[in-house]
Description:
It is flat, with a radius of gyration of 21 Å. Helix content is 40%, strand content 23%. The protein has a five-stranded mixed beta sheet with strand order 1-2-3-4-5. Strands 6-7-8 form a three-stranded antiparallel beta sheet. The longest helix is centred in the N-terminal third of the chain and has 36 residues. It is an alpha+beta fold. β1 and β2 form a beta hairpin. The chain starts with a helix and ends in a 5-residue tail after the last helix. It has eight helices and eight strands; from the N terminus they run αααββαβββαααβββα.
Amino acid sequence: MTDEFESMKKRYAGYSMNDKAVNEMKNRMVQAEFENRMAKRKRTITRWAVAAAAALTIFILPNSNAGVANAMGNIPGIGGFFQLITLRDYYQNDGSNEASVAVSGLRSDNKTAKKTADEINKEIKTLTDKYVEEYKNTRSMKGHESLDVDTEVIDKTDKYFTLKLSRLTTAGDSYQENHYYTISLETGKQIKLADLFKSGSDYKTVLLKNVESQMEEQVKDSDEVAYYYTDSRKGEGVDDFRESDLIDNASFYLNKDGNIVICYNQGDAAPMYMGALEFVIPERAVKDILK
């Protein structure tokens, strides 16, 4: 453990992130991520401009067989019912504050998929508008503020894809949050966590126990790891932490191997310095209750 981190832990109390050392560490980490994401976006803007021009002119049919699914995988966009569209593109830099917003949504000509796309687009637009307004209202007050909002398609398979909305802000304090929209390429519907499991199965308990087991192992392996759950077992938890929230309030997506990934925004399941968190649920833990 580094001397800096050890010193931070000794001064850190009550999960308040007002401690100067914790803020400095967290801000360095998040600012570095912001700069990396901005650099990556600038490097790929030309390539995406060409790809988007091709992808957005293609009207894609639903997957009817493996051959169609494989063919769709070669298209620079999303296979199945959907294609990507731009919902908001905003950039501002006044020398002290910087905002970069490049947010995509979904479009479909299929009736069911269009309903799914409209619902997801509405939520993404509402969240994005909120982030931009917050940035505009606080940038002059903070002295320096960064905002990065973007979307990306992650872990697409023949059956599912996930559209991920990410927000990263730095303004004295720093914060990262992610929203995941997992959609079936067979039905065109958004997948909820309960949709993955057999009716009547106690899937929440199964997922909860697996996540908690992973947390316990990580805490055992490193003094630099902390979770609200493991600290609550020692009588040191935060007042508003509830064990059930680890599943009830979690996000999720399906990775390229088809495994469920349980996700938490920064501060939801652990102190802020732990950042945004993901826990991959192994297939063996849920195979008996999956549909």
